[in-house]
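Blackboard transcription, Thursday session:
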Amino acid sequence: GAGVSQSPSNKVTEKGKDVELRCDPISGHTALYWYRQRLGQGLEFLIYFQGNSAPDKSGLPSDRFSAERTGESVSTLTIQRTQQEDSAVYLCASSPGGKVEKLFFGSGTQLSVL
Amino acid sequence: AQSVTQPDIHITVSEGASLELRCNYSYGATPYLFWYVQSPGQGLQLLLKYFSGDTLVQGIKGFEAEFKRSQSSFNLRKPSVHWSDAAEYFCAVGGAKAAGNKLTFGGGTRVLVKP
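(Written on the board underneath:)
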């Protein structure tokens, strides 16, 4: 596709349920990032994939959060046993070869945990 | 560890007036610096970036920013604000492989434009 695509655009869930958020990066982009943006705050880094290297998971806030990426394609961010504090916009970004100067962001998934 | 501080949470400016948004960073090497804009309901859009060379960089929409190493700052400016500039602005630092090729963002500054 022409840009980074994220789905769903909005997700409402009940506390305690698991959710999966999807990101389709720009074709050919080897690097993929997940960020979280809580209401009124800046972006928090969650996880970074670069090709076949081990992902940088240093930003994941708890073991309820996990992410997968197969090769250089789609990534899924999973949040287990969601809590109200997980409510946020989850942004995905991709870049060619991990070049942050060529980072493109998706429009995000708005997650609301009731 | 790298960090970014945007001291102003909100700024209100009259249309046609000048705008300056402050950004201070902490980084262990020569930084890559960025300004992004996020309009309501929109994704993040890159305004400008600095890697090296001329410390005054020009961006889109009439914005510019100046890198001052001695002050660890990268302030964003626009000489004359338009109503469409009302948005949230984020400063970010990163870029070196040692930093994991990830960007660290400031908390953002929300700009309101008065008619």
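Lecturer's comment: The interface with chain A takes residues 4, 6, 32, 34, 42-44, 46, 49, 51, 90, 92, 94-95, 97, 100-108 of chain B (CB under 8 Å).
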